[in-house]
């Protein structure tokens, strides 16, 4: 796999309402632990649309990983100025990613007009990537499910890898991080 799309929940879907919520670090660490083996196996590009939450956090992770690995970040929002209605801290995160990504381009060179832009974005990612990594919980549902369903349908006729991160995976990371902390063993 050379090109991977990463998506998942928006912060509010995870019960995260502040940009400095400590739970973000657990989500980011889980994503990072999933990406590193893929990069070591030859992954070259990670693509995101730049949505708040999992996608912005993934962008930040990729920028960190670039210090050690030959990985590239592409940001492809469905339309211009997707961030303009977001809270200011997320707008700043987004702008930083756009400025530091290896490639940035809006799929439509106009602002939001309708849901067709999101549908076209999903199809574009399916056509341009070898697979996806989705943070999703089948029991909870939510917006990442739309892409997951399209990916499953696409996978029926195309070679396409679907990788998932579940809440259980995040809990596992939390426990691993606790056990990696030397103070954990001294109590």
UniProtKB/TrEMBL annotation:
Gene3D superfamilies: 3.40.50.450
Matching Pfam families: YpsA
Family assignment from sequence similarity: Belongs to the UPF0398 family.
Name under which the protein is recorded: UPF0398 protein ACFFGV_06275
Protein source organism: Pontibacillus salicampi
